């Protein structure tokens, strides 16, 4: 999303850093820069406003103090609130717990992406003098146990594959929490907590449009469970709309249902797509790494090469692939900042915060 910044009045008696703070604050309040969105790099902002880097840093530090943004040297400047309020601070010896919910549909503990979530959350927690502990919660557990630290845990960051049973156990603790991703159920429900999520429609839309822009006209999509969960339906709708906007007719034969998401089901679905003669030159994968690994196994069996025979783009994070993805450390950092806001802001209200994703070009796509 392009951002247009007002020009400074260099003849005004108001300090330049204060003018910049006011301009950016107004853009955030007017949702021109949404919660979860990023500001341009400091050096780019300095050039936009035609000020020194020191002036720019002072302006941004003021927005950090007021609770609008979070600045991390290696990951940029993220908007964390459009209406921060002052409230009581957390005690220095308090803890936040990162709860990873395990289940059959999504890799968690052995997925490097989750360690990046934790790393981002831990880095932001450390800046506030707060400790981060990690717990795993299985659907078969009877309760969430903190090993004697119950009195020190102020909030929970919940990620992985949260299901209704997990949420029931989490709510029993009466500890405020935030969700990274939706609860795995047929319809979305209000859990009274912030939900950090990507724009599922936009992600598959951007993936399909990118492939169409490379000249592909037969674009398939491999999804774990199309039409089962709300985000699955949004992914399918985004894919279909992108094809229509590119002048292409959606073909239901090119939408592959990976079934129960086991290796056998995924491989069987890919073999069926190839065997029925539904020719395709590009493929969108909606989750990784299992879909990718199984796809490559089948392609190897059929002597199909990537990207020579088929271009692949993923809506997830896997180095080397062309992909639409969010920075996992940024997500973890934003999750902590939103939880901290809930714990310190008397005016806090739960929100769905859409995380900004970007296209990263890898070696798995080519122009026709």
The gist of it:
This protein is an alpha/beta fold.
What does the model show?
There is one protein chain. By secondary structure, the chain is α/β, with parallel strands linked by helices. The protein has 3 domains: 64 residues, Orthogonal Bundle (Arc Repressor Mutant, subunit A), CATH 1.10.10.10; 134 residues, Response regulator (Rossmann fold, 3-Layer(aba) Sandwich), CATH 3.40.50.2300; 125 residues, Response regulator (Rossmann fold, 3-Layer(aba) Sandwich), CATH 3.40.50. The protein is built from 10 helices and 15 strands. It has a 6-stranded parallel β-sheet with strand order 5-4-6-7-8-14. A hairpin with a 3-residue loop joins strand 2 and strand 3. Helix 2 packs across helix 3, helix 4 crosses helix 10 and helix 8 packs across helix 9. It is globular and about 70 Å long. The chain starts with 15 loop residues before the first helix and ends in an 8-residue tail after the last strand. The model has no long low-confidence stretch (mean pLDDT 88).
Provide tags for this entry:
single chain; 368 residues; alpha/beta; Arc Repressor Mutant, subunit A; Rossmann fold; 6-stranded parallel sheet; 6-stranded mixed sheet; 10 helices; 36% helix; 19% strand
Please outline the helices and strands.
Blueprint: H1 16-29, E1 38-39, H2 42-49, H3 53-65, E2 69-72, E3 76-79, E4 95-102, H4 112-127, E5 131-138, E6 153-160, H5 164-172, E7 177-180, E8 195-198, H6 200-213, E9 219-223, H7 230-245, E10 255-257, H8 263-275, E11 282-285, H9 290-301, E12 311-314, E13 322-325, H10 328-344, E14 352-355, E15 358-360
Parallel strand pairs: 4-5, 4-6, 6-7, 7-8, 8-14, 9-10, 9-11, 11-12, 12-13
Antiparallel strand pairs: 1-3, 2-3, 13-15
Helix pairs in contact: 1-3, 2-3, 4-10, 6-7, 8-9
């Amino acid at each position: 999303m392009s951002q247009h910044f007002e020009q400074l009045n260099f003849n005004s008696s108001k300090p330049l850093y204060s003018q910049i703070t006011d301009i950016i604050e107004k853009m955030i309040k007017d949702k021109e820069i949404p919660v979860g969105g990023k500001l341009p790099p400091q050096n780019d902002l300095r050039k936009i406003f035609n000020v020194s880097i020191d002036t720019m840093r002072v302006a941004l530090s003021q927005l950090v103090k007021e609770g609008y943004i979070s600045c991390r040297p290696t990951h940029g400047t993220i908007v964390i609130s459009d209406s921060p309020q002052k409230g009581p601070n957390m005690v220095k010896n308090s803890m936040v717990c990162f709860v990873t919910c395990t289940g059959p549909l999504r890799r968690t503990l052995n997925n490097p992406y989750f360690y990046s979530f934790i790393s981002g959350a831990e880095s932001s927690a450390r800046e506030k003098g707060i400790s981060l502990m990690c717990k795993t919660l299985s659907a078969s557990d009877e309760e969430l146990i903190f090993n004697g630290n119950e009195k020190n845990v102020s909030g929970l960051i919940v990620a992985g594959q949260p299901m209704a049973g997990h949420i029931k156990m989490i709510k029993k603790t009466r500890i405020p929490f935030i969700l990274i991703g939706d609860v795995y159920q047929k319809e979305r429900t209000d859990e009274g907590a912030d939900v950090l999520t990507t724009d599922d429609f936009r992600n598959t839309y951007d993936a399909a449009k990118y492939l169409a822009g490379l000249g592909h006209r037969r674009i398939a999509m491999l999804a774990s469970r199309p039409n089962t969960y709300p985000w699955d339906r949004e992914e399918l709708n985004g894919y279909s709309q992108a094809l229509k906007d590119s002048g292409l007719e959606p073909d239901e034969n090119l939408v592959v249902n990976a079934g129960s998401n086991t290796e056998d089901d995924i491989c069987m679905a890919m073999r069926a797509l190839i065997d029925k003669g539904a020719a395709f030159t590009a493929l969108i994968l909606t989750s990784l790494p299992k879909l990718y690994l199984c796809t490559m196994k089948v392609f190897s069996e059929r002597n199909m090469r990537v990207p020579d025979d088929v271009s692949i783009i993923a809506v997830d994070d896997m180095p080397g692939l062309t992909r639409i993805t969010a920075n996992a450390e940024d997500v973890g950092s934003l999750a902590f900042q939103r939880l901290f806001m809930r714990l310190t802001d008397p005016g806090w209200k739960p929100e769905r915060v859409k995380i900004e994703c970007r296209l990263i070009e890898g070696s798995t796509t080519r122009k026709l």
